[in-house]
Amino acid sequence: MHEIFGVTPWGFTALAAAALLVGFSKTAVSGANTVSLAVFAAILPARDSTGVLLPILICGDILAVLTYRRHAHWPTLWRLFPAVAGGVVVGTVFLAFAGDGLVRGSIGVILLVMAAVTLWRRRHAEAPGAEGDPTRAARVKAGSYGVLGGFTTMVANAGGPVMSMYLLSAGFKKLGFLGTSAWFFLIVNSAKVPFSVGLGLIDGRSLLLDAALVAFVVPGALIGKVAVNRINQRLFEQLVIAATVLGGLQLLLR
Fold this sequence. Notes:
Layout: H1 9-27, H2 34-43, H3 46-68, H4 74-97, H5 100-123, H6 136-156, H7 159-169, H8 174-198, H9 204-213, H10 217-228, H11 233-253
Helix pairs in contact: 1-2, 1-3, 1-10, 2-3, 2-11, 3-8, 3-9, 3-10, 4-6, 4-8, 5-6, 5-7, 5-11, 6-7, 7-11
Main location: membrane
Membrane topology: Multi-pass membrane protein
Pfam family, one: TauE
């Protein structure tokens, strides 16, 4: 792995701020951690940055589950997991052969397309279903988003915006959104660890850097928990979509 401890003090400060934002995104505005993804990839090589970031994301997932565990919609999760597993496998194969530029460009395009589709539906007043709508169309949509979510989360830890777009389109309100997202990413990110170790993205040195950064996730999560109570549903949805667009543009333009 790249010489991770060659990070300058300013670089470490940027990584610490990005870790704080991970905690905030997990308890307030899901998808905002695409900014963290961009910061980690700017300080570290893009491939190696995914291995350093994954344990930090898992720490944020644990904090989010502790905060919103009672609000998860498990039927939706069970519909998503098989498709996500397929996406993770495809993402692992892709990551083994693709260069950094192709990885970033592919994820950026996917995020922008997801945001555009969601905005188009809202503009045309397509009413979302009830949370966890079990219709056949909903199952097909869950499968499509699940594959994309698994793929993006494996290759760039960028599955948050894809799942955000799915949960918004499925009609989830703020707490149901956060609770379902929290459990989803705790399970999926934990399942990714063996794949990341096998690809050489997680090793002893990356874990030492994680140990220095993980403490910054906790205050971020606490700030998010306070902030989410001050955000109404409409603003919440707007922030999620804005974070998705920003993340997609960062990946394409970096």
